[in-house]
Amino acid sequence: MRIKLTFLGAAKSVTGSRILVETDNLRFLIDCGLYQERELRIHNWERFPVTPSTIDAVVLTHAHIDHCGLLPKLVKEGFRNPVYCTAPTADIAKIMLLDSARLQAHDAELKKKRHERERRRGPYPEIPLYTEEEAEDSFVYFQPVEYQKTVKPAKGVEFTLHESGHVLGGAMVEVTIRDKRQKTRLIFSGDIGRWHRPILRDPTLFEAADYIITESTYANRNLPDPDEMLDQFIDVINTTVKDGGNVIIPSFALERAQDILYYLYKAREAGRLAPVKIYLDSPMAVSITDIFTKYSSLLDEEMRQLVRRRSSPFRFPGLHFVTSLEDSQRIGEQDSPSVIIAGSGMCTGGRVKFHLAANITRRESAILFVGYQSAGTLGRLLVDGAKDVRIMGERYPVKARVLQMYGLSSHADSAQLQRWLYNFKNTPKKVFVVHGEEESAEYYAGKIKQDKGWEAIVPEFGEEFVLD
To answer: CA-based angle 261:265:266, to the nearest 5?
Structure first.
């Protein structure tokens, strides 16, 4: 049976995850994500390279917007078939997509006003990619699938979802394609989590595959020990509180926000955290946090015990969930220092921009990044040391402390990626290295060739491969 892979996203880049798989009987996408890197966002506006109505299915690895954020556009252009994913991913993706639509509408309006004021036009249309109503139109196609349950969408094609350990509901996708002569097994890693992290169970390990498609976000670096990073994390907060400033933590609503709450809870329980108000200023993160309780059976043993004892790290004294815009604006009126966790994680939109604007010129405040920052994003500009930045159309000098901590990331680092990949006992025909900046992906491909002697390829955007 003919098998073809086309890499339509996350090729020599971190976001925009989208791989088209074609067989004689089925055409389906693994992920349908939004590009977030500034120089690559033009791809979000392009028409799909294949007619959406001819795509038979989408399989989502997880609900981060760079993996699911183009689904409403796909439906808008004619897709009408199942979107397979775990139940938590379906619930969370619906929240994420509505928020994405709102952010796009807000950003489009700001962009239109700015361009009218400056009498120019930008590279992208001054309209959202999709509206909230169009996002909702995609929800009917979600079809939840349990881990380890085999789905057969067409003759000779089946897939199984396995836990990735990256985010709640995150999955690796095992695809088996067979005919009378042979069977071909493909493993799509999605985003791989880290072993021995709180809240989630560990990533799934495999022993055999014909083709492996692996992420490479941190393939060229090892992350610091989480306990060591936690010490630094708490020290930054305590020092900033002592100085009378605010700590702004740009955070993804899914997993990162919950991880931060967990670490703050543990520090508070141990008496290591200075008295400070903590705000989770994200309606989306608040809603997603509730979903963690709903799916507590998928959490690790420690978290399940905490939930059973009604001692959830998502509810503790001093923690305030902020949902309304009015309450969000009142945070800035507080005289006492505070920790403000707000989206988005790369500062590409959301309420964090308002908190950045209010604090970035204050030397006593700190901006603390605890996740990956893609090239071209506001977050990346800040961690790279920009002296001034544009926020919502206005330029601000950067006077606040800007820090980045990798140790709290939910992505596997170099050693852990190798732990996952090198667990395969057979020699795969090819390993495709995706979902990493070019330097990281090329490094990993070279290391795979050197360590294992396997053929490792870093695909270009739009590149096609017909598999043996």
So the answer is: 120
Distance CA 346, CA 59 (A): 25
CATH of domain 3-221+410-467: 3.60.15.10
Q: What is the pLDDT of residues 242-278, one digit of tens each?
A: 999 999 999 988 888 999 999 999 899 999 999 999 9
Please count the other Cβ atoms lying within 10 Å of the Cβ belonging to residue 387.
8
Strand partners, 59: 30, 84
Question: Could you write out the DSSP letters of every residue in 396-443?
Answer: EE--SEEEE--TT-SS-BHHHHHHHHTT--S--SEEEEESS-HHHHHH
Question: What's the pLDDT tens digit per position in 207-240?
Answer: 999 999 999 999 999 998 777 788 899 999 999 9
Quote the Cα angle for 323-392-320, to 5°: 20
Tokens 């199942």 identify what position? Answer: 82
| Sequence-separated (6 or more) residues with CB below 8 Å from residue 29 | 8, 18, 19, 20, 21, 55, 57, 58, 59, 74
CA distances from 189 to 63, 165, 266 (A): 15, 11, 31
Where is 321: in which H helix or E strand? strand 319-322
Q: What are the residues whose beta carbons fall under 8 Å from the beta carbon of 345, sequence distance 6 or more?
A: 250, 251, 252, 256, 371, 379
What CATH number does the domain located at 226-404 have? 3.40.50.10890
Q: Could you count the other beta carbons within 10 Å of the beta carbon of residue 140?
A: 10
Rounded to 5 degrees, φ, ψ at 156 are: 85, 0
Task: Give the amino acid at 14.
Answer: V
What would the pLDDT profile of 268-291 be if each residue is shown by its tens digit? Answer: 999 999 999 999 998 888 999 889
Buried b (16+ CB within 10 A) or exposed e, 241-258: beeebbbbbbbbbbbbbb
Residue 313, helix vs strand vs coil:
coil
Q: Is the pTM of this model over 0.90?
A: no
Give the other-Cβ count within 10 Å of 269's Cβ. Answer: 12
**Domain definitions of the chain by residue range:** 3-221+410-467, 226-404
Give the whole-angstrom CA distance, residue 405 versus residue 153: 42
- Per-residue confidence at 310, pLDDT binned at 50, 70, 90? low
